[in-house]
Amino acid sequence: MKRLLIVYHTMTGGTRQMAVAAAEGASEEKDIEVCVRRAQEAVPEDVLLSDGYVFATPENLASMSGVMKDFFDRCYYPVLDRINGRPYAAMICAGSDGQNALREIDRIATGWRLTRVAPGLIVCTHAQTPERILAEKVIDASDLHRCRELGAALGAGLALGVF
Ligand SMILES: Cc1cc2nc3c(=O)[nH]c(=O)nc-3n(C[C@H](O)[C@H](O)[C@H](O)COP(=O)(O)O)c2cc1C
Questions:
Q1: For the CA atoms of the chain, what is the radius of gyration?
Q2: C-alpha angle 109-70-163 in degrees, rounded to nearest 5
Q3: pTM beyond cutoff 0.90
Q4: I want to staple 29 with a disulfide (CB 3.0 to 4.6 A). Which of 89, 102, 142, 155 is the partner?
Q5: Pocket residue to mutate for ligand 1, from 9, 10, 11, most atoms within 8 A of Cβ
Q6: b/e for 47-72, b at 16 or more Cβ within 10 A?
Q7: By C-alpha distance, which of 125, 86, 118 is closest to 2?
Q8: Binding site membership of 135 for ligand 1 (Cβ less than 6 Å)
């Protein structure tokens, strides 16, 4: 049984919906155990015990969220050189951009010697005023479908052992 770990942080709900959709997609695969962890709760053992990863974060101030960065800060050295080559994908929930948060995650994953198995997925919520940025988000069905497909691809690849 292969295990997919989905680590996410959210402030206004968007990234959580994306993570749940990815988990649903991966769960279509019978031989996959899907473990969804909030970034503030995820620990190095979660990373070590998993065979592949989805990292999902909002873009805040042109960066991954601070809580997501804290997850990587806490886990980076305890798992370094123990997860080389494992597959990952990244998902970003952004108001208008998302590229820099994606670059940051790809850079950390490169340090971990992970293998990116899907292009980074950015969902844009078009929140650009303070009111809209602080409002709870509802991710639309087509974007959730993309997240679900990403999870399904990770799950299928892990189950088939193609990564
Ligand atoms: C403090 C703060 C900074 C933000 N900075 C950016 C940014 O640099 N680029 C961007 O595209 N969106 C930015 N946003 C918008 C969020 O990415 C957007 O609201 C997204 O939906 C948040 O995801 P969440 O709903 O999972 O919290 C920012 C939001 C906050 C609260």
A1: 15
A2: 25
A3: yes
A4: 155
A5: 11
A6: beebbbbbbbbbbbeeebbebbbebb
A7: 86
A8: no
Distance (Å, whole) CA 113 – CA 47 = 13
Contact yes or no for 139/123 (Cβ under 8 A):
yes
Residue 115 Cα to ligand 1 middle (Å): 27
Q: What angle do CA 46, 40, 135 make, to 5 degrees?
A: 130
Round to whole Å and give the CA distance between 17 and 13. 6
Cα distances (Å, whole numbers) of residue 156 to 22, 46, 61, 84, 102: 12, 20, 34, 20, 23
User: What is the tens place of the pLDDT at every residue in 102-158?
Assistant: 999 999 999 999 999 999 999 999 998 999 999 999 999 999 999 999 999 999 999
| Gap between the Cα atoms of 1 and 32, Å rounded | 6
